[in-house]
Amino acid sequence: MSTHSFAHLETLSVSIDQKIAHIELSRPAELNSMNHAFWQELPETVHHIDDYSLARVIVISAQGKHFSAGLDLEVLHNLDKHYTGEPARRAEKVRRMVLGLQESFTALEEIRIPILVAVHGGVIGGAIDMICACDCRYATQDSFFTIKETQLGLAADVGTLQRLPKLMSPGFVRELTYTGRNFTPKEALQHGFINGIYTDKEAMLDDVMRIAAQIAANSPVAVTGSKAMLNYARDHTVADSLNYMATWQSGMLQMPDIQTALHAEKTKTPPVYAELHPKKD
């Protein structure tokens, strides 16, 4: 993307208002299944928003009846072409293909700003991989979740098996993975996967946008630092994480945003923070 226009996207619809970027999966007729274009457009879009500091928080939702049916069958049918030729080179090619798909969702963790995802209807297969990489998850009461891959003859390979056991009880994740059964938003809430359940999509988006606005009102330096530290702590020991936190603060703990926050608290006025510097000019 060379400009800030998102009109060229085939699988996503993007709007930005009040420092909140709203990304919608926009292939409702295809149940927002993840075709070849999607795997390119999603990481490029979130990186573009982050690179140019276009927003302070991202909300992801979907158009149509379902959030996403997961990997488009077109992609699965095309797998055959990767299984030809000499075994070692074939395996190396498949490994690069899987790593590329993984990077599409790892981008959601790598960017500096939080991502809230609001789901409804079916959240299936690759859609679980995707929302696992988001910061917070919200669902309607008619939603359902499925780790579908075992029923398709393969192991989930784009993040579910790595991220979900750190979000839900591991034994429950194993049950869901091995059986491939649907699980309900009530189960997802009970096991810590989602933050809340809503009566319908409109009510959910209203509340998620309210939460996003609260995030956007805070210091972007404090928010990005918190995201970085939470992700680091998830993957490291407490001692290592505390040590990294001290190192982070030695450079990032500066007074301007603190003074802005204290002044806003004292005067009962909204704080006004400078944006993060863009990564790209």
Automatic annotation (TrEMBL):
It holds the Pfam family ECH_1. Gene3D superfamilies: 2-enoyl-CoA Hydratase, Chain A, domain 1, Lyase 2-enoyl-coa Hydratase, Chain A, domain 2. GO terms for biological process: fatty acid metabolic process. One of its GO terms (molecular function) is isomerase activity. Pathway: Lipid metabolism; fatty acid beta-oxidation. The keyword DNA damage does not apply. It comes from the Bacteria. Keywords: Fatty acid metabolism, Isomerase, Lipid metabolism. InterPro entries: ClpP/crotonase-like_dom_sf (IPR029045), Ech1-like (IPR045002), Enoyl-CoA_hydra/iso (IPR001753), Enoyl-CoA_hydra_C (IPR014748). PANTHER family: ENOYL-COA HYDRATASE. Belongs to the enoyl-CoA hydratase/isomerase family. This is Crotonase/enoyl-CoA hydratase family protein. It comes from Opacimonas viscosa.
